[in-house]
Amino acid sequence: MNLTWPHLPELFPQLPQPGRWLPLLERHSALLQQAAHRVRVTSVPAEDAVRRHYAESLELLRIIEATSPQPASLADVGSGGGFPGLVIAIVRPETHIHLIEPLRKRAALLSELAEALALSNVTVHAQRGEEAGRGELRDSLAVVTARAVAELRELLEYTAPLASVGRLVACPKGSALESELSSAGNSLTALRCAHQSTTPMRPEISPTLSVALFRKLAPTAEAYPRRPGVPARRPL
After folding, report:
1. Which of 47, 52, 171, 195 is the most exposed place for a label (fewest CB within 10 A)?
2. CA–CA separation, 127 vs 182, rounded Å?
């Protein structure tokens, strides 16, 4: 069954004021469709967008908040059209959201969307994850996430340097998660993280996706993240 907009408040009753955030999510979707001729951010069919983009983003947030209190800050690495970062910014206006997007057209679109939706809690960073991990956000954020960006060993090098000590990296992953986890030992050690838990999304939202949560144990070692492009060529 394809989910529709009215299903979201039913699935996520913990989110207050659906009369405020549901129209904003619908507006975000409409704006993306209007911009599709100039900036492509998704290949998901329109009839499946509510489930794949919005419900999955909110389910990620639900799983994060089941483990940790509502975060004061969150980074979304490789944000694309704002999934999950802009979705979370809409439903959690008290959380400051950092959208990290290396493609300039997509970063510009994210800024346009945040302005059109009057989201004062959003900052867009037009840079690669490796660059962000060496900048002002290093070791500073309560939660870091990334959706459909890279294999786990590579992904952790983009995300873990941004998290503050003791806080979370949350990675939605599909059926390859277990094999990726089994190969990620060196990456976890080098980036001073530990795998805390894996939680499947509810089947009505996604029968295949789970969220792997990692805890940052210590400040990022000076060697990481490596130069742009290196994590992809030589994963830890």
Report:
1. 47
2. 30
> Crossing angle of helices 104-116/18-35, nearest 10°?
140
Contact 97, 74 (CB under 8 A): yes
d(CA 59, CA 172): 10
What is the C-alpha to C-alpha distance for residues 140 and 225, in angstroms, rounded to an integer?
15
pLDDT by residue (tens digit) across 84-139? 999 999 999 999 999 999 999 999 999 999 999 999 999 999 999 999 999 999 99
- Contact yes or no for 121/97 (Cβ under 8 A): yes
pLDDT tens readout for residues 155-187: 999 999 999 999 999 999 998 999 999 999 999
Q: In what order do the strands lie in the sheet with 193-200?
A: 122-125, 96-100, 73-77, 141-146, 163-173, 210-216, 193-200
Q: What is the pTM of this model?
A: 0.96
- Cβ proximity of 158 and 150 under 8 Å: yes
Using alpha carbons, select from 60, 209, 64, 234 the residue that is nearest to residue 153: 234
